Amino acid sequence: MSLEQTAKPSSKSKSSKSGFGLSQHMNELSLFVAIIVLYVVFTSSANGFLSFNNQINILRDAATIGIAAWAATLIIIAGEIDVSVGPMVAFISVVLAFFLQWGAPTPLAFALAIVVGALLGSIAGALRAYCDVPSFVATLGLWSALRGTALFVTDALPVSIGRNDMLDALDRSLFGVPPAAIIMLVLFAAFAFISRKTAFGRSVFAIGGNAHAAFLSGISVSKIRVALFAIAGAMAAISGILLVSRLGSGNATAATGLEFDVIAAVVVGGTSLSGGRGSMLGTLLGVLVITLIGNGLVLLGINPFFQQVVRGLIIVIAVLANIQAIKRSMSRNKG
Amino acid sequence: MTQATNLQPASSPIVASVIGCTRRYPGVLALDNATFQVAAGEVRALLGKNGAGKSTLIRMLTGAEIPDSGSVSINGAELSHAGSGRAQESFEKGVRVVYQELSLVPGMTLAENLFLGRWPRKGGVIQYAEMEAAAAEAMGRLGLDLPPNRLVAGLSPAERQLLEIARVLVGKPTIVILDEPTSSLAAAEAEKVMAAVTRIASEGIAVIYVSHRMNEIRQIAHSATVMRDGRIIDTVDVKGADTREIVRLMLGSEASQAAALENTGSDKVVLEVRDLALAPKLNSVSFALRKGEVLGIAGLLGSGRTELLQSIAGVRRFDAGQLLVDGATVKPGRYKEMLRRGFGYTPESRKEEGIVPLLGVDENTLSTNFSGVSKTGVLSSRMMAEATRRVIDRLHIKAARTDTPIGTLSGGNQQKVVIGRWVYANSRILLLDEPTRGVDVEAKAQIYAIIRQLAAEGRSVIFVSSEIEELPLVCDRVLVLRDGTLQDEFISPNIDQDAVMAACISGH
């Protein structure tokens, strides 16, 4: 569903057909190249970048951004935005810790945490769908309220959970791979499937492409908008559960700024902020780019304050390069 | 109230002249050796059906287009620029256009809107007192008596239209072109706009008034120029001319070869509309639609035809009246329920409301019923391709593949997809709003054939059109909507274009 397809005249020659596939995946290709470049640069400059342990770290960090980014991709394709991810993750981690402190069985506590996340998300969705509150504003309200509530309830102190075998298992690597990474990849497969192969996923594209036309052809625009934000809440809750398993406590100050990494990953991945266009594979690559940059800069020992500057620059340059590549391939197709 | 009794004196200077202009687009002769002149203080009506060349003529005057041959002069001086500077040149000579789409900023005041982007400034600070005084003066000239510091958001449609006109008056124009200025207004409100037009003309400004409402034209215009097929057919004195005569000039004498349609209608009424009202556009509309019937609704822009269709479709809530589907009452404003009852609606603005341009023909077609191409909730590529292929073949859609993005297709093929999605959804009552707008001749003919075929299968169609000549080709029956009421009924094969057009534009 990329822009360059639009520019493609409906021709039938064989050469243009192969060009069709190539230009369609221009975005993913250029990201793939960017990842290779990052690997080459960091391997040659940062000590221990290629080590097994560090690669595992990268995967684990990618999971934190990725799980939320899958849902965020659908939201942005639908022409909406969700800035509440970070506080949602932290809030759910606190909620989960309390559930466990109160003696709820662990599986039940997990389920409840996910339900709470979905319900909170659906509040933002309902405000958007039924009251016409812009999703930026609705989730900004949620962003502030959730962080505030979590800090208020815990006094910004960690909420410990004591010993919990199930949570420990979630942090124990399977054949060297952290479960968080496995969960991320499984969810990626699920979202990629949903976005391409279900009526729900295709309706999301239709709504982002032209909400009015989607409504007139009978798509339940409002319900789908609510569902999208509920799904985002549930995904943030899963991230929250993984956070508790990693830290051994609920933490109201955790995941600060996560929403920006998530949005950056989606946008770097080629999804259009104006809606209607984007792909899960792009976001997967975008998540990798964002994670690699973060990891590499730390290993290089760059001043943490200056790291943020470099990160900001790289994100903007990546998106700029991507837009240029798409424009070029479009004009080529036209000519 | 606005009797334009004084025909402009013969001695008035000619302020704008188009001499022997021809403009050709690929495949169309938009303007064919047209010669057109207006004098200072004159109100000239410009008439012609869609595609007659009115817009091209206007663009000649504004400099937006350059004639292939011929010349355009404003105030006696010929427009000389051959590039993008031409529009600026024409503007500087005093040509102003008020378009149908309003271009006001609702959140700003009347004065700010009047001087939008040209606010009087001193050292970068806007001089509000000065600006508001000038605004009050400009509005006063049109009889628009409102505080200049009010927000545009609170204005009525007529007041907004007047403000648009006041805006073009600020720069002291020599000629003002109004493009269907009353099309969105109710009759009483239109009076205010017409009074303003008379005032402008009395200041010595030439006015070109594009409209089809004969009552208005009779009230304010000195004469009317009729265009057809890119040519200026005649300029007539509207006071003397009979409506039928003007209609004949507009439509030409091409024998309306209304080949008798095969009557596929039955006696079974599928939809009944009783006293439907939607202030201020519709008051008390009643009719019945039968199974297998193609019912045409003719009406000018602003006659309420779109509102009527949207009210029936449930996209818009009507104020009063009853809607009966198969004899059962349906509540207003329930679009989803109407779809379940077998309705299908195609909107007038295909681009804004009809298509999702980035998605393929397949998804644009199948979005009305994804479950029809799913197996246990999963979309099947094979079923999607097959279902789309059936629609493509049946409606003769030209698309290389079933997943070709619909945005790359021609307007006609896009429209066929928009209709095709309801064929796929198996709708039995189709509400089509201007389905042939912006569509080429071949695609038009195909759309007519598709509609007849759908009717032959027992589906019912309401066909809204402002192109009178297509109605006899598709419709079993035509209702004429004017000023929010049904005025007349014509039954095939006695759908006479001239009579339908006369009923659309004039009230008697």
Tally the helices of chain B: 17
Number of strands of chain B: 24
Which radius of gyration of chain B do the C-alpha atoms yield? 25 Å
- Mean pLDDT of chain B, rounded to whole units? 88
Tally of separate domains of chain A? 1
Radius of gyration from the alpha-carbon trace of chain A, in angstroms: 21 Å
CATH names the topology of chain A as ABC transporter involved in vitamin B12 uptake, BtuC
Topology, pairings included?
The complex is a heterodimer of chains A (335) and B (508).
Chain A: H1 3-7, H2 14-24, H3 26-45, H4 52-77, H5 85-101, H6 106-131, H7 135-154, E1 159-160, H8 165-170, H9 179-197, H10 199-209, H11 211-216, H12 221-247, E2 249-250, H13 258-268, H14 280-299, H15 304-334
Antiparallel strand pairs in A: 1-2
Helix pairs in contact in A: 3-14, 3-15, 4-9, 4-10, 4-12, 4-13, 4-14, 5-6, 5-7, 5-12, 6-7, 6-12, 9-10, 13-14, 14-15
Chain B: E1 14-25, E2 28-39, E3 43-47, H1 54-62, E4 69-74, E5 77-78, H2 85-92, E6 95-98, H3 110-114, E7 121-122, E8 125-126, H4 128-140, H5 157-169, E9 175-179, H6 187-202, E10 206-210, H7 214-220, E11 223-228, E12 231-236, H8 243-251, E13 269-278, E14 282-290, E15 294-298, H9 305-313, E16 320-325, E17 328-330, H10 335-340, E18 343-346, H11 350-354, H12 361-366, E19 374-375, E20 378-379, H13 381-394, H14 411-424, E21 429-433, H15 441-456, E22 460-465, H16 471-474, E23 477-482, E24 485-491, H17 497-505
Parallel strand pairs in B: 3-10, 3-11, 6-9, 9-10, 15-22, 15-23, 18-21, 21-22
Antiparallel strand pairs in B: 1-2, 1-4, 4-5, 7-8, 11-12, 13-14, 13-16, 16-17, 19-20, 23-24
